[in-house]
Write a structure and sequence with these properties.
Distance between the termini: 39 Å
Number of domains: 1
Order of helices and strands: EHEHEHEHEEEEEEHEHEHH
Shape: globular
Largest sheet: 9 strands, mixed
Helix content: 25-40%
Radius of gyration: 18 Å
Number of helices: 8
CATH architecture: Alpha-Beta Barrel
Structural class: alpha/beta
CATH topology: TIM Barrel
Length: about 300
């Protein structure tokens, strides 16, 4: 008998890219030089570690960072749209708006993004993970096929970022409930977080431990969190296994005495060791490659039926 192929562990590194001159609600880098340099240096660090990246670019960046975006694309990185409504002179966060207004906001951002890049993107992230139960349906209707819009357990009432009890692993989405798996084409890949974490009762703001690269305490909890996620995926027999990291170009990647590139190398080694211990095949991935892999499996997997039956 032939040797059974190892199950892949998809590893995704993502970056949000915002302009330096946005409104107070969307803090940005100190300058355009830092905005572009941070993106380029993060991409270079990923390439040196033989990893891939999904870069979510606000359309308002592309007039000044178009050349950087083209370099990312040429190097095999994925480009997606980052939507902060305030950058387009709306007053609030995406999840605060109605179905029709979200279509207007997302449609406008997509149009501007396409005008700058000469092509549309099918990958999406909402700023600050802001969403409501209309959002995934809106994204599907606006032509997006995949995204990373959720941070399970996060609570921020002001930003309309409410992800208590959200499904923590990659899944097709439901048109009426953003927190559960469904059968819509839009495929959501959450940030890897501590899905059992709990903030204070009635807290208006809580962010759980998650794989945010610049988080000062990441070195302390990354190994434990990675192990917890992988063990839960094994226990639940999750067919598509992923670890999803996040950062932002407000972090001065590549700056003087930059600790982040060294941290990236350490994280890559940590993930590689965790995969080897569990006999998983490490697979650098993007949102679109993960979606493609998931769709190749789901017709022959009973997992989707199982989680729908328990929702």
């Amino acid at each position: 008998m032939g040797r059974t192929a190892a199950m892949p562990l998809h590893v995704l590194f993502t970056m949000d890219c915002v302009p330096p001159d946005g409104p107070e609600a969307v803090p940005g880098p100190e300058s355009w030089d830092q905005a572009g340099g941070s993106v380029s240096n993060f991409a270079r660090g990923l390439a040196e570690a033989e990893l891939k990246g999904s870069f979510f670019l606000a359309p308002q960046c592309l007039n000044r960072l178009g050349e950087v975006a083209e370099e990312l694309k040429a190097s095999g990185m994925e480009l997606g749209l980052l939507c902060h409504p305030q950058l387009s002179n709306y007053q609030s966060y995406l999840g605060s708006y109605s179905f029709d207004r979200q279509r207007e906001i997302v449609g406008l951002a997509s149009t501007v993004w396409q005008e700058h890049m000469g092509e549309r993107t099918e990958s999406f992230r909402s700023g600050f993970f802001s969403a409501n139960d209309y959002t995934f349906q809106v994204l599907c209707l606006e032509g997006f096929r995949q995204g990373s819009c959720s941070l399970p357990v996060r609570i921020d009432l002001d930003q309309c970022s409410l992800w208590q009890k959200a499904h923590p692993f990659p899944h097709h989405t439901d048109p009426l409930d953003r927190k559960i798996p469904g059968t819509m084409e839009f495929f959501e890949t959450p940030i890897s977080s501590d899905f059992d974490a709990k903030g204070e009762v009635r807290a208006e703001m809580y962010t759980p431990p998650h794989l945010r690269i610049e988080e000062p305490c990441l070195n302390e909890h990354a190994g434990r969190l990675i192990a917890k996620c992988l063990d839960r995926m094994e226990a639940d027999d999750v067919p598509v296994r992923s670890l999803v990291f996040v950062t932002c170009n407000t972090v001065n990647w590549g700056g003087a005495e930059d600790p982040f590139l060294e941290r990236l190398r350490n994280l890559a080694s940590l993930v590689s060791n965790a995969a080897a211990e569990r006999e998983l095949e490490l697979m650098p991935a993007t949102l679109s490659s993960l979606h493609e892999y998931a769709d190749s499996l789901w017709p022959e997997s009973g997992y989707l039926d199982e989680i729908e039956g328990t929702a």
